[in-house]
Design goal:
Layout lengths: L1 H27 L3 H31 L12
Length: about 70
């Protein structure tokens, strides 16, 4: 259970940063198209982060704690 906390916390913090940053830019934006693009970008990043966190939780539950060892070439 402890191993699930860190991915969730990182996901929540990252999503909060994406949304907050997008809102700051949108407040300074003048055009509707620019605001729309920024909102879509923040939404896409947030959805991707949720997908990654869910995938990581599944990996942890299956017993793959060391995810990095799959990617070393030597």
């Amino acid at each position: 259970m402890k191993k699930l906390i860190i991915p969730i916390v990182i996901g929540v913090i990252s999503t909060t940063v994406f949304i907050s940053y997008a809102m700051l830019i949108m407040q300074a934006a003048e055009g509707f198209l620019f605001m729309y693009i920024i909102a879509l970008g923040a939404l896409a990043c947030s959805v991707a982060m949720v997908f990654v966190v869910v995938q990581r939780i599944k990996e942890i539950k299956e017993g793959e704690y060391d995810d990095l060892s799959k990617y070393w070439l030597y």
